[in-house]
Structure formats: structure tokens, C-alpha cells
Write a structure and sequence with these properties.
The complex is a heterodimer of chains A (248) and B (293). Chain A is mainly alpha-helical and 248 residues long. Chain A folds into two domains: 1-83, no CATH class; 101-248. Chain A contains eleven helices and five strands; from the N terminus they run αααααααββαββαααβ. The longest helix of chain A has 20 residues, at 2-21. In chain B, 49% of the residues are buried. Classes of the chains: A mainly alpha (248), B alpha/beta (293).
């Protein structure tokens, strides 16, 4: 008897959930309160997560676009801080914004900042910890990177676009000689920082975060024009991307 | 420190904690009894759980009692609690050792999709069996009693076999959980279902209450000209909800009472004025009940 009725609850919830997510009109006006709650609250969560994307496309467009995102990529966890991870890939394939090809990377930068805000805490070390290592042992050093540290690499001037649309009342136009930018996102304390990372340093970051020893990581990056070991390492330590090192 | 003479857990009146007020609270050290947080706001993301939310919450926790209020377990889902979520809740509870832990009589996850609303349940024996099983699972994992909150509802279902108050009473009796009585939700639901809130409160199993919520609501007009109350938590507690609250505690005595204000968050001064109002009503009842005892 109970089992049959529990089946009833499961069926009830399946039908209810399907109607909530469907775009079809529902007969019950009261039911629409729940549908509006679900959609409006998720749109608001995404707008809070991606304010620069919203500014770039306009609030109304963003809301309509967010509804499509919600339909294609509904949240899979009650932790809404984790909702929006797929926005970059979604925007890459979203035809109506094809004329804003940098939009996806801007969303990845905003998402990276959000992840950094919530990431685990860790204390950072300064470059003196590295310079104190005996020179003949430097190549074997492994650096541990901060849980909040990440890189968003872009062929677009993603930092310039994000900066002017975050801080300026009226966005400044990007000059004709713009170049692609990679953003190093860090949060050594309570504040999230975004710094430009030269392409060669980006490769260094990726090697180090994969656990590659310093000598090998530098060797991989050295092939890229303009790579300066000292400058790249200095940036990583200065921005709070390094939490500890181990000498082999 | 003066001795705590409160009969009901020593908490008095508290406020829902909002990031907008972290600094006001830490700088001003207001005389508020306790704070309540939504558990989900402190569960972090894939790279751990740290940063400013925990930096501030840890300092506030060091100075005030805390209540952890979950909004995402989906206790009423036939298919089970939201996957992995009980472990996340347990981590928050373990980290902050709150005085109270509560969740909702609702469901919000289905087929792996989080619907971000507290969805209504039909009050049947079958639903009761599901909810009792899940509350038991939560209490076993957390190794503590939790409180379950009465919802704001807009819909009723033909299959229902019992009133909400009877459902909650049976839930508390069978699972050993306590109840979080949200007086605003009572006002909203009874208005929406053309029912007398004083009758609801008279039927409510008050012996299981562990906490009371007060919040603001809005009236909207849905298509067809019907008006509905919605628990928006975006404005002051209404006078009629205050009146219900006052008459309730005058009957049952003082209980930890929270002012919830979750959107269009006001200044700390405005929010704390409502907390002070609840505190003064609680103090009055406390004195009266102490004299009567």
C-alpha cells in the first residue's frame, strides 16, 4: 500500500518538475508562481555572477539568454555558488552573440573570479623562499599553487574589456592595436586580483599547477618568444599564486 | 556576563545574516541574540570553501550563537535527498557547531536538477513516510535533532489525507525532529487557502517548536484577478504577522525568534529595529511566564 502511494509521490514530482521547466502555458495560475520563482531566481543568480557579460549584451538580452542557458544547463546542485560553470562553453555556441566573440572569455574571467572568491584559503610564500634554495637544486623545486589561482587565456583583450566594463561609468573603446590577454586570477587574502600574464608565463603556470618541477616547467616555456624566467616567477609569487615549495 | 535566564535555549531574538551587514556587526557588536545563515551560502565551490564568506562568518560565530538553515536538501523528494548534499551540510555544521539546524518541509531537486524553489508536498501518508525517512537520515548523519519549517504554499492537492499541522505533528512524533514555526508562512498560506491563521496556530503542535521565523510578504495579482500572498522576505514583518506572533508567544511563552530579510536587504539599523521589537516582546513574555511559574 505504502509503496504504491510512494510511487504516487514520485509520479507527482516528475509531472510537477516537467511542468516547471516546460515553456508551455499552464492552466493553473497558482502553479505559475512556482515556475516564476524558479526561473526568476536562477536568472538573478546568473546576472549576479556575470555582471560584465550582462552589461555587454544589455540587461534584457541577458535575461532572455539566461533563460536559454537555464533550459540547456539547469543547475545540478543546490549550491548556487557552483552554478554558471558552463557559461563560457554555452556562449561559444550561442548563435545570437556570434558578433561578440570575446563574450565567452569575459564570462570565463568572471567565473574564475567567482571560484577564487569561494576557494579554500591558504597562506602564500614570497619569492625569497625560492631564492633561498641552493642554485643547483632549483631545477627540482616543485611549487604548490593556491586553490584560488587560475588562468583565463584569451585571444581577445579580455582583461581590458572586463576592467573598463567593471570600473568605468562609460566603457572605454579598446584601441586598434589590442592583443590577446591571459588573466592570472588570485586571491591571497580577502580580495580577488586579476593580472595580465604573458603567454609564456601562462604555460609556466600550467606546468607548475600540473606538478611539473621548476627546471622542466621553465624549459617548456623558454621556447616562447619573450619569456623571462625571473619576471614570470616574480609575478606568480607577487600575486599570491604560490603557497609552498618542496625541494627534492 | 550575566547568567542566562532564558527558558528556551538562551537565544532570544536573532537576525538572518547577510553579507551586506558583516562589517556593521563586527564593528558595532550589536546586542543581537544570534544569527542564522543559509547553509548553502557557505558550502564553497569545487576549489574548497574559504574566502570572505568564511572569514566573516568565523568572526561572527566567535561572538554570537549561530543557527544553520538549509534550503536545498530536498527532504520531500521521493527519489531521495539532493545527491551529496547531506555531506555538504554536515561539513558546515561540523565547522560552525551551530545552536540550531533547520530545513524545510519541501522538495527542490528532481532527477538531478535543482529547481531553486521550495516546492509543495501533498500531505499524504506516503509523503509522510518519505519525509520521516529523510529526516531520520539527516539526524543520524548530523547526530543531532533538526527543526523542520512549515512552508508558504500556493497550491493544495486533491489527494491530501491530512492537514499541514497534523502532518507536522506526526513528522515530529515519528522522527523526533523539532519544528520551526514560520508565522509569516502561516499567514501567507492561510490567506492563500482562505483559512483562519488563528485556527492553524491553535492546531499547531507547539510542544515541538524549537524556533520561530518572522518575515515580510507581498501581495500579487495573478491572471484572472485573484490575489495571492508570496513570502518575499523583502520588506518589514507586517503588522498582522506581528499580532499573530504576539498572541502566539503570549500563549506558549518565549522561543528563539528570527527576523528574515533576504532580498532588498535594508540597512543594519532597519533590520535590527525589527529584531529589537521581537526581543522586547520576548522579554515581556519571559517575565510574565517566569512570574506565573
Amino acid at each position: 500500500m505504502l509503496a504504491r502511494l510512494e510511487g504516487g509521490l514520485a509520479d507527482f514530482q516528475s509531472g510537477f518538475a516537467a511542468s516547471l521547466l516546460s515553456a508551455e502555458k499552464v492552466a493553473d495560475r497558482r502553479f505559475s508562481v512556482h515556475r516564476n520563482n524558479v526561473k526568476a531566481s536562477l536568472v538573478a543568480a546568473l546576472a549576479a555572477r556575470f555582471p560584465v557579460v550582462s552589461r555587454l549584451v544589455g540587461v534584457e538580452f541577458f535575461q532572455a539568454m539566461a533563460l536559454v542557458f537555464i533550459e540547456r544547463c539547469p543547475p545540478r546542485s543546490p549550491v548556487l555558488a557552483a552554478y554558471g560553470a558552463g557559461m563560457g562553453d554555452f556562449l561559444d555556441g550561442f548563435e545570437p552573440v556570434a558578433d561578440l566573440p570575446y563574450l565567452a572569455d569575459v564570462s570565463r574571467l568572471e567565473w574564475g573570479r567567482r571560484l577564487a572568491w569561494h576557494a579554500a584559503d591558504a597562506s602564500t610564500i614570497s619569492i625569497e623562499a625560492l631564492t633561498a634554495v641552493e642554485p643547483d637544486r632549483l631545477a627540482g623545486v616543485r611549487l604548490d599553487l593556491h586553490p584560488a589561482a587560475s588562468v583565463v587565456a584569451s585571444v581577445w583583450p579580455v582583461i581590458s574589456i572586463w576592467t573598463t566594463n567593471t570600473g568605468d561609468e562609460e566603457a572605454r573603446p579598446i584601441g586598434p592595436d589590442w592583443v590577446g590577454q591571459s588573466a592570472l586570477i588570485t586571491r591571497p587574502g580577502l580580495e580577488v586580483f586579476v593580472n595580465a600574464l604573458p603567454p609564456s608565463a601562462e604555460l609556466l603556470f600550467r606546468s607548475l599547477s600540473a606538478g611539473v618541477a621548476l627546471g622542466e616547467a621553465v624549459a617548456r616555456a623558454e621556447h616562447i618568444a619573450g619569456f623571462e624566467t625571473a619576471a614570470a616567477l616574480s609575478l606568480l609569487f607577487r600575486t599570491g599564486a604560490v603557497t609552498s615549495l618542496a625541494v627534492e | 556576563m550575566t547568567a542566562d535566564r532564558r527558558p528556551r535555549g538562551g537565544l532570544g531574538a536573532g537576525a538572518g545574516l547577510k553579507p551586506e551587514h558583516y562589517r556593521d556587526i563586527l564593528d558595532g557588536r550589536p546586542g543581537v541574540g544570534w544569527f542564522e545563515v543559509h547553509a548553502e551560502n557557505y558550502m564553497g565551490t569545487g576549489n574548497g570553501a574559504g574566502g570572505p564568506p568564511h572569514f566573516f562568518l568565523e568572526q561572527i560565530r566567535a561572538r554570537y550563537p549561530l543557527s544553520v538553515h538549509g534550503v536545498g536538501l530536498s527532504i520531500g523528494s521521493a527519489e531521495g535527498l539532493a545527491p551529496g548534499h547531506l555531506q555538504r551540510l554536515a561539513a558546515v555544521v561540523d565547522r560552525y557547531q551551530p545552536a540550531l539546524v533547520s530545513e524545510h518541509l519541501a522538495w527542490s531537486t528532481h532527477a538531478g536538477v535543482f529547481l531553486n524553489d521550495l516546492l509543495p508536498l501533498p500531505y499524504t501518508e506516503a509523503t509522510l513516510a518519505v519525509v520521516v525517512r529523510h529526516v531520520d537520515q539527516v539526524q543520524s548523519t548530523l547526530k543531532r535533532r533538526i527543526l523542520i519549517e512549515n512552508p508558504s504554499t500556493y497550491l493544495r492537492f486533491a489527494v491530501e489525507q491530512m492537514a499541514e499541522t497534523a502532518f507536522l505533528c506526526e513528522l515530529a512524533r515519528r522522527s523526533g525532529c523539532g519544528l520551526l514555526l514560520d508565522v509569516n508562512n502561516v499567514f501567507v498560506s492561510t490567506a492563500n487557502h482562505d483559512f483562519d491563521p488563528t485556527v492553524y496556530l491553535a492546531d499547531f503542535p507547539v510542544e515541538h517548536i524549537g524556533e520561530i521565523h518572522l518575515a515580510g510578504h507581498a501581495s500579487i495579482e495573478v491572471a484572472g484577478g485573484e490575489s495571492l500572498l508570496i513570502d518575499t522576505h523583502d520588506r518589514p514583518v507586517s503588522d498582522r504577522v506581528w499580532a499573530l506572533y504576539q498572541s502566539l508567544i503570549s500563549r506558549i511563552g518565549p522561543y528563539p525568534t528570527l527576523i528574515e530579510w533576504d532580498s532588498d536587504v535594508p540597512t543594519w539599523a532597519r533590520l535590527s529595529a525589527d529584531v529589537a521589537r521581537a526581543e522586547s516582546l520576548l522579554s515581556f513574555e519571559e517575565g510574565r511566564h517566569a512570574r506565573a511559574a
